[in-house]
Amino acid sequence: MERTALRRRLSWQVATVTDIRPETATARTLVLDVPDWAGHLAGQHLDVRLTAPDGYRASRSYSVSSDWRGDTIELTVEVVPDGEVSPYLVDVVKVGDQFEVRGPVGGWFVWKPEQEGPVQLIGGGSGIAPLMAMLRAHATSGSTTPVRLIYSVRRPASVIFVGDLKELAASEHVDVRLVYTREAPAGEPRVGRIDADVIGQYAFTPVDAPTSYVCGPTPFVETVADLLVEAGHDPARVRTERFGPTGG
């Protein structure tokens, strides 16, 4: 049974797009039906492969943004300038289209409901995708584990999952903080990147011993991980997932 499941994860399968939800002007969520989907853990990702009529193939990895329920999975993709895959997924793909996927992949950058201790989520841009999967898994499981999300975005129009985040923030166990780096909404006094002051003000303290999950572009992830360690957090409890500018 385990070998069959492993073989399925390592094999390319055909996914069918059953629904599409716009998130921002440059990002959208694709709902996929994958036959015999064995489920995934919050934080895992899939490999996506596109094949052109002339046989040329391009593949990229995208985090699953949905929780483990049901027979469908969701990928939330943001356009990467000059990318080979993300422009097609965001601007071209329509309901009924098919492409290949493989996975789920990853076992370190995951959160499970039975996991003990507070959860600190810090995301930049589309790095919110696997963190949203964790937030949804948290809500679905009825977990009372305290969770804090710090989400760095350029401007209000860049917020992915804006409606979902407002709903999740209403939970007594989830705290959501948006950090705007270019343009902030009226009444928001601060515009700038995540720094030591933001970590000190909004993140759990080292005494709380949270498990921290940081996802976003490589420079963002490295900076935030360093800030957490400099603030006294145990490096072994800081988990990172990063993507480079050539992805997509």
UniProtKB/TrEMBL annotation:
Protein's name in the database: Oxidoreductase
PANTHER family tied to this protein: NADH OXIDOREDUCTASE HCR, PROTEIN RFBI
Family matches, as InterPro entries: Cbr1-like_FAD-bd_dom, FAD-bd_FR_type, FNR_nucleotide-bd, MRET, OxRdtase_FAD/NAD-bd, Riboflavin_synthase-like_b-brl
Residue ranges of domain FAD-binding FR-type in the record: 10-111
Iron-sulfur among keywords: yes
Listed SUPFAM superfamilies: Ferredoxin reductase-like, C-terminal NADP-linked domain, Riboflavin synthase domain-like
Pfam families xrefs: FAD_binding_6, NAD_binding_1
Cofactor requirements of the protein: FAD
Entry's Gene Ontology molecular function annotations: 2 iron, 2 sulfur cluster binding; oxidoreductase activity
Cross-referenced Gene3D superfamilies: Nucleotide-binding domain of ferredoxin-NADP reductase (FNR) module, Translation factors
